[in-house]
């Protein structure tokens, strides 16, 4: 069952940490700063609850959604136009076979040694969701780090604002100071980490790359430059089109992790040549 994926120490740590962050942000820092009984306090608590809820929802989608495997019936589409080309095309087919699975691999597919299977448009394996990030759950992963970044930054602002307005001139303040400092270091560190990760995947989305393809492309660009050539990622069809292929054509649904009706079978992808 897919629910067995939650039997992971990483996932339990994430859920415990999210619960802790939600509690201290709403019932300690926000309540102390604005009071949850005030209209402003209620508004901020509702906003943070909304962001945290979508973050958790995206997390569940990432964990439970199959990133996409290669169908057992898949065969690469190869046409033999000339007999003299048969040997070179046969070598090309062998390169498309997975060394681990011994099955044919569609374009942009890579083998995950942890999942022990080939993943369509694989980006990476993430221990924190106990799943691969691939063709079918990449959008959910982006929304997860987006909402997580917003929640972490918001919590950091509330914590710092509360600390600056708090009266520290009373007995027994040292344990409270240590609590604020420790929580601040963790939350601000999380904001920086998630913000950096979000920026990285925004860049990849604009270029229509995966993390694996980025490093492969770096090497390909280096080899091309040695030959006096220019390398261009074949699946980069323009910024807006690239974003639409990942998040969908409707901008109103870009931040909904389950709005994935635009996702195709993952066996083929539009290339720059088709748009030129």
From TrEMBL:
It comes from the Eukaryota. The keyword Acyltransferase applies. The keyword Methyltransferase does not apply. It catalyses: L-cysteinyl-[protein] + hexadecanoyl-CoA = S-hexadecanoyl-L-cysteinyl-[protein] + CoA. Its EC number is 2.3.1.225. InterPro entries: Palmitoyltrfase_DHHC, PFA4/ZDH16/20/ERF2-like. It is a multi-pass membrane protein. Residues 95-216 form the Palmitoyltransferase DHHC domain. GO terms for cellular component: endomembrane system. It is found in: Endomembrane system. One of its GO terms (molecular function) is protein-cysteine S-palmitoyltransferase activity. It holds the Pfam family DHHC. Keywords: Acyltransferase, Membrane, Transferase, Transmembrane, Transmembrane helix. The chain crosses the membrane at residues 7-30, 42-64, 140-159, 179-200. The DHHC domain is required for palmitoyltransferase activity. Belongs to the DHHC palmitoyltransferase family. This is S-acyltransferase. The lineage of its organism: Eukaryota, Viridiplantae, Streptophyta, Embryophyta, Tracheophyta.
């Amino acid at each position: 069952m897919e629910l067995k994926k939650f039997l992971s120490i990483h996932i339990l740590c994430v859920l415990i940490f999210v619960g802790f962050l939600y509690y201290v942000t709403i019932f300690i820092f926000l309540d102390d700063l604005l009071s949850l009984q005030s209209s402003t306090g209620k508004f901020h608590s509702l906003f943070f609850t909304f962001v945290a809820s979508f973050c958790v929802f995206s997390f569940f989608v990432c964990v439970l959604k199959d990133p996409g495997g290669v169908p057992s019936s898949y065969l690469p589409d190869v046409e033999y136009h000339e007999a003299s080309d048969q040997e070179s095309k046969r070598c090309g087919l062998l390169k498309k076979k997975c060394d681990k699975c011994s099955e044919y691999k569609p374009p942009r597919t890579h083998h995950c040694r942890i999942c022990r299977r080939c993943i369509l448009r694989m980006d990476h394996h993430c221990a924190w969701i106990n799943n691969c990030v691939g063709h079918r759950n990449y959008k959910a992963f982006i929304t997860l780090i987006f909402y997580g970044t917003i929640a972490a930054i918001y919590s950091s602002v509330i914590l710092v604002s509360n600390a600056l307005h708090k009266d520290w001139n009373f007995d027994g303040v040292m344990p409270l100071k240590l609590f604020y400092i420790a929580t601040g270091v963790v939350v601000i560190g999380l904001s920086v980490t998630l913000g950096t990760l979000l920026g990285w995947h925004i860049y990849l989305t604009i270029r229509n790359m995966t993390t694996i393809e980025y490093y492969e492309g770096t090497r390909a660009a280096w080899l091309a430059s040695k030959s006096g050539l220019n390398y261009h990622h074949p699946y980069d069809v323009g910024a807006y089109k690239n974003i639409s292929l990942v998040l969908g054509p409707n901008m109103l649904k870009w931040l909904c992790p389950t709005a994935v009706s635009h996702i195709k079978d993952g066996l083929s992808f539009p290339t720059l040549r088709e748009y030129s």
